[in-house]
Model the fold of this input.
Amino acid sequence: MQELIIETMNQFGYWGIALLIAIENIFPPIPSEVILTFGGFMTTYTDMNIWLVAFFATIGSVVGAFVLYGIGRILSEERLEKWLGGRWGRILHLKPSDVKKADIWFRKKGKATVFFCRFIPIVRSLISIPAGMSKMNMWVFLLLTTIGTSIWNIVLVWLGAIAGASWESVVNYIGIYSTVVLATIVICLLGFSYWFYKKRFKKKDK
Done:
């Protein structure tokens, strides 16, 4: 995967970076840290510019995020409520009303969530889906996404440029950061799930 990414960037330059980042946003397992840090390294031995690398990476980020936002709009709250009103809702012990609660929470906290989640691996891409489902204002979504991803992109491109030929060491450190963050999220989700289902079953016992 890494070899393909590097080859694409070497061959297509800025537009290759934009394309790869757009794909990375839609398919999170593709490592953005490789694309961005290597892009920074490229500025040390080619005529590519750090700010243009970050700019085109941001274009790709926004395009990819907008695609997922559109998917969220298609899914919609009504579709999820209908889905949870059937067999899957019984299996997961979820109710259509839970969708409404989640939507209310996202409408209150959505702006901050969309912005800060841009710094969390994998989640930084997937957060666009609930933003679309809650029908967050498209222009607000694009603004927050642009600002958040710009910061992420600029930092990693600069780190790649500073590290130079040792850019892969930056990737390794980002990998450690990603692992710690994702492990923390999983633990929090497990804790929340335990609390949620315990509360749900207690209500059923009464």
Observations:
- The two ends are 54 Å apart (CA to CA).
- The chain has a mean pLDDT of 78.
- Residues 167-205 form the longest helix (39 residues).
